[in-house]
């Protein structure tokens, strides 16, 4: 149609459009919105001619300027509830006004189609718009579009657009609670695998902010088990994706405490397979837990429900236990628990005996009379006795031998208490003897002086 050239000396449509765009800075906000809404129906033409870019550039410039002039506390955090307001009505009113100045454009832009929001959000990120405000807008957009969506495809497209744009933002500016809310919504949506992975990656990176209720998500339709264990395992993988050494120990231990609670909740599920239970236990490094007592108690519940497991399967489940990180009470309880395999009970006994031997050695080293003949005989006999017991425990195979070891262990514990009493008594005696010798020596030295 040769619309790019002048005809009969008059400006054609292309020239009129360029002249109009030159004055875009004088357009009202409503005129900008109307122009963008019309471009939604002509997106290929508008994009190729650069018209839509000029519209969006002007619109984003106005949004950015309003946010920059608004010292809104909520823009620096994903959760504005953490800010305390003064009781002064003027400061409260000022706070409300500042929030409005930062978010007044949310409702107007929520009317755009997802593909336009995709372009808009990218440009906002490139213009360094506050990520806290942008994440709030994306959440608002998703909620608003879902309320008006009539078919499932619209919801899927909206959710995928929002997830893709959130993935570009700084995670510290995104509300974890809202992310998990989106995850619950996606359980009933068939969004793309790529978008789902990105959402799970964001949530997994912030897993130390989660609660037990967040993790207790129902299993997918058609699954026999109660809770979605596979999802939790994927979140844990995302949490330590850069390596456990890259995660601060405080965050690691917080997640470990959360997972221990989760394991205790899912352990009674009769459909939970042993390898899934073990995968949960081993999903975090040993350094994340100071104690394995919670894992032991969860294993007890698991064995009570899964009583049909063979010895080999039970030993695989027990491979997740770190016996040296079980408390004395936990080791004693495990050693006497008939639901556990014999080898596992024997390992608990050996761990206890090693601790007893270590305690005896510390007691002997702390004694000032360590080189005395009496204490040497006592220590030597005790060391041999410990070695015999440890060697004997290593040969455990039968339950009868296991019961004998339990009795022997109890006797050893009593023996340790008796030895501690004897040690304290001998320490007191030695102290008195030393004091008496020092006194006698001083008296002897003073005698010559008195005679002279």
What share of residues is helical? 55-70%
Q: Count of DSSP helices?
A: 21
Counted beta strands = 0
Shape: elongated
Radius of gyration: 36 Å
Largest sheet: none
Q: Pairing-aware structural class of the strands and helices?
A: mainly alpha
Q: Could you tell me the mean pLDDT?
A: 79
Task: Give the ordered list of helices and strands.
Answer: HHHHHHHHHHHHHHHHHHHHH
- pLDDT < 50 runs, ≥5 residues: 70-91, 369-398
C-alpha termini separation: 138 Å
Into which percentage range does the β-strand content fall? Answer: under 5%
Keywords:
single chain, 452 residues, mainly alpha, 0% strand
Written overview of the protein:
With 452 residues, the chain is mostly helical. 68% of the residues lie in helices and 0% in strands. The protein is built from 21 helices and no strands. The radius of gyration is 36 Å and the shape is elongated. It starts with 12 loop residues before the first helix and ends with a helix.
Write the layout of secondary structure elements.
Elements (H helix, E strand, L loop, with lengths): L12 H10 L6 H11 L3 H7 L1 H18 L20 H15 L2 H4 L4 H13 L4 H18 L3 H15 L9 H11 L6 H13 L6 H4 L13 H11 L9 H18 L7 H8 L11 H13 L5 H8 L9 H9 L5 H25 L6 H22 L4 H53 L1
Helix pairs in contact: 2-4, 7-9, 8-9, 10-11, 11-13, 14-16, 15-17, 18-19, 19-20, 19-21
